[in-house]
Specification:
The complex is a heterodimer of chains A (about 250) and B (about 450). Chain A is an alpha/beta fold. In chain A, about 25% of the residues lie in helices and about 20% in strands. Chain A contains eight helices and 13 strands. A five-stranded parallel β-sheet of chain A has the order 1-11-6-3-2. A four-stranded mixed β-sheet of chain A has the order 7-4-5-8. Chain B contains 22 helices and ten strands. In chain B, the strands form two sheets. Chain B has a six-stranded parallel β-sheet with strand order 1-10-7-4-2-3, with helices on both faces. Chain B has a four-stranded mixed β-sheet with strand order 8-5-6-9, sandwiched between helices. The N and C termini of chain B lie far apart (about 60 Å). Classes of the chains: A alpha/beta (about 250), B alpha/beta (about 450). Chains A and B meet through α1, α5, α6, β8 and β9 of A and α2, α3, α4, β1 and α5 of B.
Chain lengths: ~250, ~450
Amino acid sequence: MQNNEANGPEARVSILSAIRRQPLAAQSLPSLNQLWIRYDDPAAQFAEVLQSVGGRCVPVDDVEHLGRELAEMPQYASAAQICSLVPGVARANVDLDAIDDPHLLETVDFAILPGEFAVAENGAVWVSDAGMKHRAIVFIAQHLALVVPAGAMVSNLHEAYERLSFSQPGFGVFISGPSKTADIEQSLVIGAHGPRSLTVFLLSAGSSLVATSLCEQTLYVKHRSRRHVSAGGNLLTYGGADQTSGVLQRTDIV
Amino acid sequence: MPHAASAAKFVANEARAHWHDQALWFVRAKRDRAAQTLPEWESLRETASHIKAHTISRLADYLEQFAEQATRLGAHVHWARHAAEHNQIVLDILQRHDVRRVVKSKSMLTEECHLNPFLERHGIEVVDTDLGEWIVQLRGESPSHIVLPAIHIKKEEVGQLFHERLGTEAGASEPKYLAEAARRRLRECFMRADAGITGVNFAVAETGGFVVCTNEGNADLGVSLPGLHIACLGIEKVIPRAKDLGVFLRLLARSATGQPITTYSSHFHGPRPGGELHLVLVDNGRTDILASDEFRRSLSCIRCGACMNTCPVYRRSGGHSYATTVPGPIGSILAPARDARTHAGLPHACSLCGSCTDVCPVKIDLHHQLLTWRRELAVRGLLPWHKRWSMRLAGFVLRHGWLYRLTGKLARTIVPWLPRWLIYHRFNPWGKQRELPPFPRHSFRELYRRRHAK
């Protein structure tokens, strides 16, 4: 630790000893085992809150259903560059793993990413960067869809933190709705810097199976090689029309 | 300029002052609705207050634990005693990486340390990427509110500013159009930046990670493109356990803007693969506040801004009238702790209505602390002469019953006959926008005695 300190250990020692000079009576840490709110129908609560923060919740039966719903979205239909880490659901043509510089993701129109679980009280979905080469994709895509197993739903944030562990380096984010700002006269504008829309697909069919297979497939896809094509001056990697590449082939698994 | 004088300027434009007042009251009302959705709201506040009190009572241990865990995760931890040290550390890191352009998300700590002008003097371009903060940066101002930095600016003024600086259409003031123009320009800044600087909402001692909350996604975009991330935090930001975040994140956005949670609550644990993460822990007067029994609880503040939104003085005087980085009730406690002489007027910019204390998510006894500050300022001899002498006079009168009775009788007899110019003049600021109530013929004491004599 010491060798990281530009100003030597003096500042640290001086701050810590200034604090320790105060003989403060120890105060106990409160228990968090309390009666926190729970919902009879968490999915309905989640959908309602998500809508109130500008997002959209779409329950789907299976991956095929998800594909049909996607196809009906104008943002998806008109998207030229699509990046997906959820196998089998999208006509993805941007391969995150084949890109070295996250700046190249700037032109991505639509991203479809796995969300680990949803929180009913605030419409948030936990997204981690495990198996995601560039976390920038979460924030830089023009539109974002998250696919969450419908069974992976907690009522409140306390339950959410029970599920999370932070022992390893990594990044995770609760996302509740699309990027927004109200900095101009408190008028809500959707699409500040990040995604202009957020759609959360709650995937129900054999949800526990889905949950595990999502992870497996992410790993699987990572190891597939993809052909490189140049698009609009940016070096991007496309699965494209070549149907032998990873993402599109995995439909049969789920 | 003292607060009262700046506030007088602000309220001179009555329509605008009213608009400002209403804009903030709207946010306060949203906060109430959000709080009412949770039956456990009061219990959450109580719990948060206790977690903070506990943390402060063992702050050194938790800071060491946080630094140790963060280092284990691969972050570089720096300590800064004051603003100058903080700025130098940040500059050194940036220069080591040959950084020319920085994108910064909202951080009141870096405002407090005046990091932007310091970096600019050393040839580094800093762009504040929170839309509100960018607007005030383009105007050459400081934020007037810690959560809503541009709450004092009208959309027509933003339209004019963007027309001049971004070439948007003249006269265009539609927020959606303006925000879109800002999005395009700031995207360019994100794409060109060599480093990202963020603040920190909560640092977790147990894990060495930290959480940054935004609605725009600007913090995340700013640190997920370049390889270098510098996060600056005051030493009071540390909390013991990851699960404590459940308590604070439930309170923060609901108290701040009435949202159930911010759009993005990002949890950083260690640097990005191949990237570099630096944490700068800053004291800058916080250990002095910790040493004071009266004001220690102000360190619990999670910077939600709820006390500002509800404060009748803040709403009607505007954030800039406080001339501090953090304005409003909490700012009026923190600023005199740093420099009592300069900010001696702020604890008086308060009607002691207690609304701030009612809404504070971590239950800081704000209005009690403001009252304590007034006493403290008197003890230190920092009251202006007219307050000092009028208080001394009032104290003398109240200590002598006969004098009090005599003064009352004289006032009741004489004042109603005095000409207006003798009552309403520049030495009676109370009467500036107010009329004295009609004087009663008899005092309460006289009425009471008469009734009992019957």
